[in-house]
Amino acid sequence: MVGSIRLGKIFGIPILVHYTWFIVFALIALSLSTQYFPSRYPDWSHWMYWAMGIATGLLLFLSVLIHELAHSLLSTFQGIPVQRITLFLFGGVASISKESTTPLGEFLMALAGPVTSLIIAGGFGLLWLVSRFVLNIQILAAVSSYLGIINLSLALFNLIPGFPLDGGRLLRSFLWGVTGNYRKATEIAITAGRAVAFLFIVGGLAWALSGHWLDGIWLAFIGWFLDNAATQSYRQLVSKEALRGVKVRELMSQECPIIPASTTLNDLVYNYILPHSTRCFFVREGEKLKGMVTLHNLKLIPQAKWPSVTVAEISTPMEKLLKVKADDEALDALELMVENDVNQMPVVEGEEIVGLIRRDHLLQFIRTRLELGI
Ligand SMILES: [Zn+2]
């Protein structure tokens, strides 16, 4: 996500915070310090409201982070790496490159988050009981009761059975396990997700009109976000189906010309790129392939230097390029390109480059298949 800062790593997983999360944090701390705590505990000092508001906001942040870490650990146990955890406007999200290969795997991964939130809620509940009735520390009781309720709500909200919420994933894994049909199960869970989103939007707007405008609009906004996420999940599902069983070999092109290392950028543009609308070239030095040049490399060099700079100077070295094997799944290749934000990758067979796979070509393949309904 653009606009995120990296806090560090936990269990090898980078933790990122998107700037929208700071807005939420500020709103939560503000409402706790100026409304929630003062209305319930009128005899605290002014700075105490703020200290507790900020501390509670940070603990909430930690609660969401632990929820996402629980999903991530269950994913890592199954051998599916987690790229990052990002906290943003609507909470947290663990970016996991692949989905579980078994219904049980997905079931456990989805369940881990809400169960963890329930355990945290229980822990704060216990802390509330002890601080309220045994230790008699009002501040501790105030913070723990709030966090207990929030974590309980977090668990319950995530258990709503609409994809891509955790509850929607549970529903899918259940249907998938029972019917053995991954596609049908996903479709039903996504439809449920869109129905939930619709209810949130309608309910939120009705609530807003009845006078609770801030809460109502917020609920409708969450509904809108869920609807987007469900729609996107559906597109991914369709792409996956379209590429299922297709190998890189079938979709790679062999039209990535090999040009000598001494070619200047001027030659490259006027003799190769413009006449043939080719966007990517392998650079050869002697008998050896040295690297690859794309429009992306070229655009980094000011036009005035094109006559004097050679392709060898701007090419990405072979060993630094992401590569795929001709027998790899096309879907894996597409995911790899999306993940690393590259538009093409050389295809290798043993030591040899046998072609090039392009992102836009794969997307075009998916679109054509959808258009023909095959
Ligand atoms: Zn979750």
Our measurement of the CA-to-CA distance between the termini, rounded to an integer number of angstroms, reads 34 Å
Strand-residue proportion = 15-25%
The distinct ligands, each listed once, are:
zinc ion
The total strand number stands at 11
Shape: elongated
Mean pLDDT: 84
DSSP summary: helix tally = 13
- Widest beta sheet: strand line-up: 1-2-3-4
Q: How large is the radius of gyration? A: 26 Å
Q: What is the SS-derived class?
A: alpha/beta
Task: Note the main sheet.
Answer: 4 strands, mixed
Number of domains: 3
**Proportion of helical residues:** 55-70%
**Which runs of at least 5 residues are low in confidence (pLDDT < 50)?**
none
Oligomer: single chain
Structure description:
It is a single chain. The protein is of the alpha/beta class. It is built from 13 helices and 11 strands. The strands form 3 sheets. The chain has a 4-stranded mixed β-sheet with strand order 1-2-3-4. It has a 4-stranded mixed β-sheet with strand order 5-6-7-8. The chain has a 3-stranded mixed β-sheet with strand order 9-10-11. Helix 3 runs antiparallel to helix 4 (138-158). The structure holds zinc ion (ZN).
Properties at a glance:
4-stranded mixed beta sheet, alpha/beta, 16% strand, 374 residues, CBS-domain, binds zinc ion, single chain, 3 domains
Quick overview:
With 374 residues, this protein is an alpha/beta fold. 61% of the residues lie in helices and 16% in strands.
Question: What is the strand and helix layout of this fold?
Answer:
Elements: E1 4-10, E2 13-18, H1 19-40, H2 46-77, E3 82-88, E4 91-96, H3 103-134, H4 138-158, H5 166-179, H6 182-209, H7 213-243, H8 248-251, E5 258-260, H9 265-276, E6 280-285, E7 288-294, H10 295-299, H11 311-314, E8 316-317, E9 324-325, H12 330-340, E10 344-349, E11 352-358, H13 359-372
Parallel strand pairs: 2-3, 5-6, 9-10
Antiparallel strand pairs: 1-2, 3-4, 6-7, 7-8, 10-11
Helix pairs in contact: 1-2, 2-3, 2-4, 3-4, 3-5, 5-6, 6-7, 7-13
The structure holds zinc ion (ZN).
